[in-house]
Amino acid sequence: MELYIIGSGKMATSIIEGVRKDFAVTVVARNEEVLKKMEKKYKIKTIKLNSFNIHGKNVLLAVKPYALKNVSSNLMGKANMLLSVLAGTSIQTLKSYIKASHYVRVMPNLAATYKKSMTTVTGDEAYKDIALQICKSFGDILWVDSEKELNIATAVAGSGPAFLALVAEALSDGAVKEGLKREDANTLVKGLFEGFVPLLKENHPALLKDAVMSPGGTTAAGYSALEEKGVRDGFIKAITKAYERTLK
Ligand SMILES: NC(=O)c1ccc[n+]([C@@H]2O[C@H](COP(=O)([O-])OP(=O)(O)OC[C@H]3O[C@@H](n4cnc5c(N)ncnc54)[C@H](OP(=O)(O)O)[C@@H]3O)[C@@H](O)[C@H]2O)c1
To answer: Is-above-0.90 flag for pTM?
Structure first.
C-alpha cells in the first residue's frame, strides 16, 4: 500500500523508520534540503509540498497543528484515508480543512524512532484495521472508541516521554547531589528504566512498590519524601493539564 506522509519533522521521521518496511512511503514537505537527506537515508520518494493532489491517496498528516490551514491550502482533491497525528486537533477540525473519505486520528510518541511508540488510535471504524496495521509498524497500539479518550491518551503517552524525562533527570540530579559522578548517575538511571519495563509489564505498579518497600527501610524513607512533596498529585495534575490543553 502507498502511504503519503505530509511533514518532515521529528514525528514524521520517527514514523518513517517503521512504516517504510511495509508500505511504499512518499514524504511530502516544504523543506527540499531535508527531503533530499530523507531520500538518501531511508530510500523513499519525496515530493515538495506545492499544490499536492491527495485524491484517492492514503495520507498521514504530521505537521504542527497551527500549520493545518497553511498546509491544507497546498493540498488538492479528496484523500481516501486521512490519518492525523496532530495533537488536540479534532476530526471535525480536520474535515473543515482537508477532504477525505475516512478520517482516523493517531497519537504516537517519539519512541516510534525505535519502533516502540505507544500509539492510540480512533476514528472511522471502517479503516480501523488498516490504521492499526500502519501504527503497529512503529510500536504498540491501542484503539479507543472516542476522541475524548484519545485526548487523555495524548496526555499520558504523547507527552509521557517528557514527563518520564523529568523523572530520569531528577533521579540523576539527586544522585549527583549526594556525590555520585554524573556519568555514573545517568548510567544507573538508564539501566533502571530498562529493567523497569519488563517489571511493569508483568506486575501491577502498586505490587511492584510493595515488593521493593520493606518496613522502615530505605525505599520507605524515599517514598514518604515523594508523598510529602506531592509528587503523585503533581503527576495527576500534569495529566489533567495536558488533557485540557488538547481541548483548546
Ligand atoms: N513530537 C512529539 O513527541 C509528538 C507526539 C505526538 C504527536 N505529535 C504531533 O506531531 C505533529 C508534528 O510534530 P513534530 O514534533 O514532528 O514537529 P516538528 O518537528 O516541528 O515538525 C513539524 C513539521 O511541520 C512542518 N510545517 C510547519 N509549519 C508548516 C507550514 N506552514 N507549511 C508546511 N509545513 C509546515 C514542518 O516543516 P519545516 O521543517 O519546513 O518547518 C515540519 O515538517 C504535531 O502535530 C504534534 O502534535 C508530536
So the answer is: yes
